[in-house]
Amino acid sequence: MPELGPANHVARLSVTQQRSQRLVDALVYDGTRLYRTAAIVHCALDLGLRSSEVAYLGLDDIDWSAATITLRGTKGRREDVMPLPAATGQAIAIT
User: Fold this and answer.
1) pLDDT per residue over 1-22, tens digit each?
2) Which long-range contacts does 80-87 make (Cβ < 8 Å, 24+ apart)?
3) Would you say 42 and 92 are in contact if contact means Cβ atoms under 8 Å apart?
4) Nearest 5°: phi and psi at 82?
């Protein structure tokens, strides 16, 4: 495998829209653990969250009426408020 430089690193880690759709389509909603997995996948794909940002999320970080989510455990150690896509909100709500 070739060594990854800074410019190639991002390109190699990106997921194509087709692959991300295949991943979402493969999710099977038949159990608590699988609902949780679906919520994690949606947070990563729809919002572009890092694994640590997903791990720090709590239900109190979601403003359902404003359809926003507040990220507290970000890489820059700041709070970010992002719009919450409907599919992501639905995946979180059913967990």
Assistant:
1) 445 445 544 444 566 777 777 8
2) 82/47, 84/47, 85/42, 85/46, 85/47, 87/42, 87/46
3) yes
4) -125, 150
